[in-house]
# Entry
Amino acid sequence: MTAAIDDKIQSHATAKGFTLTSACWMVVGTFMGLLGATELMAPDLTENIGWLVFGRIRPVHINIVLFGFVTPGLLGAAFYYVPRLLRTEIYSEKLGVVTVIAWNVALVAVVISLCMGYTQGREYAELIWPIDIMVVIAFALVFINLVMTVKNRQEPVLYVSVWYVLAGVILTATTYSLGNVIWRPNSGALVGIPDAILLWFYGHNVFGLLLTPLAAGVTYYVIPRVCRAPLYSHTLSLVGFWALLVVYTHIGTHHLLQVPVPTWLKVIAIVDSIAMVIPVMAFLINIWFTARGKLGEIHADIGGKFVFTGTIMYFFVSIQGSMMALPDVQRVTHFNNWVVGHAHIGVLGFAGMITLGGIYYVLPYITRKPLYSRFLADLQYWLVLIGMVGFTVVLTIAGLIQGNAWLNGEVVYRILPEIHPYYVTRAALGLMVFVSALIGLFNILATLFFNTREAAS
Amino acid sequence: MKMTFKAVVFGSLMILAAVVFAVVILPYFHTNKITPSEIFRLRSDEEATGRDIYIANGCVYCHSQSIRVIDWGLGAERIAQAGDYVQDHPILLGSQRTGPDLSQEGGEHPDDWQTAHFINPRYTRPLSIMPAFAFLGTENIERLTNYVQSLGLKNADERMKRQKFWKEASIKAYEAGPEANVRWLHELIPEGWRNIPNPYPTSAAGLARGHKIYQDFCFGCHGPIGDGMGPAQQYLYPPPLNFTILKDRGISGGILYYQIMNGITGTAMPYFKRELESEKIWDVGNYVAVNFINQTDADEEPKGIDAAYEP
# Structure
């Protein structure tokens, strides 16, 4: 994996642009999460400020974290490692920069439209049609740039990271269009039960076909590099990749096990949710065996440390996810904070950690300068880790209280005081994650713009 | 296996196409011709506008519209069926139940309760963590109320008919003056309940429990001193009862119990039998009787044998 192309002649403008995009929007996304968490413990905090009402900022939080923080961060790393793995330059930095600008315009539109109450009202598919089009175009531009880079490659072999990025981008563009019912601009929805089935097909794929492949791509690049070891198994790479595409796409209906949808579809969703163990463990065994005996090297590299932690969170979130698809488990976990905890291990613990890892790993290469502060990066690591794990613990407890109380026949209203202390703790932990985003933004800005130190040899 | 560019991109797309066929297109043809259920009716334009406001403000993130088989205790008289949703575009099943399920909310409360609740949910439900929606303005709150009152469709219509019938009766009684109003309220209570002996003593512990229940459930309407001047009062008609007018007008623990348990349909007074166990209803009734009415039938004979825990 030595580069034939000298890094020095490349501007890496696209990678820098996406990295900066991710760092900035992480601040916005986590702030919205913190604000929402605070409103749940102090509901009159933003009384009569309509555009900050909980029901509007919750989708802002989710969409911004998804499309503002995690996706651009993972793409930023990809725009560095894809050309490098292919021993070429990125096809067009100009196109890349245009993509970054369009991406940011779309994100601003996301915040404004959702705060104003323009939404399709479907979880993960809230964005209105004009923004849907912008998102699809942005993904298409990324795809074109990557495809042309692949075409211009000097390296005949496509490394596993490249598979994941190519598949992640094109499959997301496709399922995004499908899930947002893009052929119906006015509503972006189907009618009745088919709408629920399509929505959760897409809603789950936005993780399985976007965050997971892009995060896997970064992991497959960073871990062997940091460990200075060859990848453990090509076969496991193949199994993990194809099994992910086949299995993950089947499981969306596990969100609808308690809804009148066809039973055969529920059976497919449950069986494939359990089968998710195959792609997950193929990937993790491959990565962990590559890293076997090299934990010291991983710990020494801040990027590697974030990414490796992300793989551990991937293990937890996936095993938990498989369990949650079991109807008996879901009797307790559905409709309550347990699921919110689960989502945060997935998006912050797994994809978010790997996003930050990817950024910190590639930043010295794309800036040709050392990271501004390793200490601040470490501080961010611990704030995210403690915030996210604590978060999951308290939300899981709150979810169990809710789920069991409901099964016991108690009404929603009477449980509210019981979960209040957990909401307060959650907001405090959310504050840690928000502070970590501020620290990260400062560190990344400083590395990009104010760092006067010379590159390490 | 050699992973060429074509294998990756076209292979992925082919897998996706096959899966879409299996888990989206096949189920679509299985579910898109569902017969409307027996409670189904079309929504009016006004209700549809209210639904848009519901969507725009993200109500779906805290309120499900999906009553499950296991929701036996949550107040649902009906499990959701696929045929309930045939006009829902988009469907609003929800994924969180931070607030109660709303699929059968229509007619649970009269319109004025809904208005007070939208202005600030803590006016009617002191423990609620729902945001205040006063910023929507009167017109939009009215539209939203129309939509919420339609949830449950034909079932909701039946309940709304009942609310409107009793609303009219309760207004007439209220306007006839305190004497007639109290008489009307008491006559609604079945005879046996009016005379039921009060089984709980007004012990300090019992009154403390009553105080807690009163604060968590009652004071938004009836006010901290029981004069019916809680913050919700300005939106409710007939207004919440001023408890002091009950003195020497035949009030009893049994009457209070029955009213708290079943509510007074038509007025903003909801039923609490699903939220409060029997002892808590007696305790809050005794709290009101002792502190606000200044007349209680607790501690009177016949009481039978005292409960084992009584000192």
User: Anything to note?
Assistant: Chain B touches chain A through 77 residues (CB under 8 Å). Chain B is about 45% helix and 0% strand.
